Automatic annotation (TrEMBL):
It comes from the Bacteria. The lineage of its organism: Bacteria, Pseudomonadati, Pseudomonadota, Gammaproteobacteria, Oceanospirillales. GO terms for molecular function: oxidoreductase activity, acting on the aldehyde or oxo group of donors, NAD or NADP as acceptor. This is Acyl-CoA reductase-like NAD-dependent aldehyde dehydrogenase. PANTHER family: ALDEHYDE DEHYDROGENASE-RELATED (PTHR11699).
Length: 513
């Protein structure tokens, strides 16, 4: 345990009534808020303050089947898929307005359930609203192609039809943001959905349900289940009435979901883990690069698939650069997620904190060098882990290639860009990476050779609804966001037409007998 005085720790204040009153909800199936058929409740306690923050009806397999049935019937009825793009777009815009009108409530609930700093939660809800509005523009622009080059008596066209019923399974680290990377695009395409947020952080997803009806989403188009992935995952991934599964979470669960879904050839989209490198060249903008490394690893307490969890530093500057990262890390405020200026809140749950501590212990066992932190911070409540930096001499060591998902930076050195790129590509993941250099050749070489869905040059973890997001290798399948994201939720149909009389018969009376 680490003494809070040894880190930049911000203690807790007494909570206000609004902050301490738990959010409660039932399931949302076929346009109604209903109890789960087991009658059981799930409870979420704040990972910072320890009090009850959310209490929810718990869905079981029977509820999942009811939700799938509702989504299927809603899709087949055409109540949503037959609307014009303009109608769907207007409803998505109303949903965005509805979220915006309750921005502070959404942000507080998100912060309370995840432990993330309130200001960050607010930024994420604002970002999510922007994504809903962006998806609304795509609803009006979805179209196919026509082919006029098939001969004088042929015309071909492709149309994009909504895929059908989509199961959306989301994780606990960015509950509303990740939901917003999936659901509005599925709706823009004309699909219906069953959504299952992580049980630990269901609040903002079910809160959305309270907006859908007034925005004009017909019953059954969106159904929200709260409950464990082990129970609900199988029907959501295997039921023949589901056409697609979109999942964000760990690579291991993603593999299981993909295997289940592939048995009935459902379309799958997977956003999985990462072990994302930031490459620091000697000619980098020093201050900006140090700041980006600190931001990259501690943002969301490192519980982030995009976390810059590996820094690869040119050996000529490594000692000084890492010393600067250590000093800046000491300035990072950790603790009370409701306090101004706090950047790092608690870990999501006790078991996960223990896992992260286990990785730190393993690193020390393997001879890696702990430069900062490495311990839990002593406090009456709250699962706080001190910002941690570990320098490793061996890129084969466990902390250099496994996703730790905590505020733990792994530092490695390299001698030239080729070696840096080889280290960057040496894990099973390929989600994102960055390079810091003023030399355009270095930057473009790295961006071409690194196997990752996103490469940032002299910046880190920027994101825009316009730009696709997703991973190479075991970091995922498919892309979210961007103008093509809505197409992920469509099926292409080819329509071929003949003009005029048909002259070339396959069998003709003039054929030799
Ligand atoms: P999971 O992959 O277990 O959880 C993600 C989602 O999948 C949750 O909604 C979860 O539900 C659900 N789920 C769990 N088991 C199944 C299943 N058998 N079938 C279908 N869905 C299932 O991640 P964890 O929450 O356990 O986190 C573990 C690790 O995953 C982290 O340490 C991190 O490495 C990684 N992770 C990566 C994320 C990313 O953004 N890439 C996000 C979150 C985690 P429920 O939790 O309610 O049971």
């Amino acid at each position: 345990m680490m003494n809070p005085n040894d880190v930049n720790f911000v203690s807790h204040n007494a909570l206000t009534e609004a902050q301490s009153t738990p959010f409660q909800s039932k399931l949302y199936i076929n346009g109604c808020f209903c109890e789960g058929s087991s009658g059981e409740l799930s409870s979420r306690y704040s990972p910072a303050f320890g009090h009850l923050v959310g209490q929810y009806a718990q869905a079981n397999e029977a509820d999942a089947l009811t939700a799938i049935d509702a989504a299927r019937k809603a899709f087949d009825s055409g109540v949503w898929s037959d609307k014009t793009g303009a109608e769907r777009s207007n409803i998505l815009l109303k949903i965005a307005d509805g979220i915006e009108s309750q921005l502070e409530e959404f942000a507080l609930l998100e912060s309370m359930e995840t432990g993330k700093p309130l200001q960050q939660a607010q930024d994420e809800i604002v970002g999510s609203i922007d994504i809903w509005r962006y998806a609304a523009t795509l609803a009006r622009n979805l179209h196919g192609d026509t082919y006029h080059n098939l001969g004088s008596n042929k015309v071909g066209m492709t149309v994009r039809e909504p895929l059908g019923v989509v199961s959306c399974i989301t994780p606990w680290n960015f509950p509303f943001l990740i939901l917003s990377q999936k659901l509005p695009f599925a709706l823009a395409a004309g699909c219906t959905a069953i959504v299952k947020p992580a049980e630990l952080t269901s609040g903002t997803t079910i809160k959305l349900a309270m907006i859908l009806e007034s925005a004009g989403v017909p019953a059954g188009v969106v159904n929200i289940l709260i409950g464990s992935g082990r129970t609900l995952g199988a029907p959501m991934a295997t039921d023949p009435r589901v056409d697609m599964v979109t999942f964000t979470g760990s690579t291991s669960v993603g593999q299981r979901v993909a295997a289940q879904a592939s048995q009935s050839m459902k379309k799958i989209s997977m956003e999985l883990g990462g072990k994302n490198p930031q490459i620091i060249m000697p000619d980098c903008d020093w201050e900006a690069a140090v700041d980006a490394v600190v931001f990259g690893v501690y943002f969301n307490a490192g519980e982030c698939c995009n976390s810059g969890s590996r820094v690869l530093v040119h050996e000529s500057i490594a000692d000084d650069f890492l010393a600067a990262v250590v000093e800046k890390s000491k300035l990072v405020k950790v603790g009370n997620p409701l306090a101004d200026g706090v950047r790092v809140g608690p870990m999501i749950h006790e078991g996960h904190l223990d896992e992260v501590l286990g990785y730190i212990a393993k690193a020390e066992e393997q001879g890696d060098n702990l430069l900062l932190g490495g311990q839990r911070i002593e406090h009456d409540t709250g699962l706080y882990l001190a910002p941690t930096i570990i320098r490793s001499a061996n890129s084969g060591n466990v902390i250099c290639h496994e996703e730790i998902f905590g505020p733990v930076l792994t530092a490695l050195t390299f001698t030239d860009l080729d070696e840096a790129i080889a280290i960057a590509n040496s894990t099973e993941f390929g989600l994102s990476a960055s390079i810091w250099s003023k030399d355009i050749d270095n930057c473009l070489t790295a961006s071409k050779k690194i196997q990752a869905g996103t490469v940032w040059i002299n910046t880190f973890m920027d994101g825009f609804p316009e730009l696709p997001f997703g991973g190479y290798k075991q970091s995922g399948l498919g892309r979210e966001l961007g103008r093509l994201s809505v197409e992920e939720y469509t099926e292409i149909k080819t329509i071929q037409m003949h003009i005029g009389e048909r002259t070339a018969m396959w069998v003709s009376s003039a054929d030799p007998s």
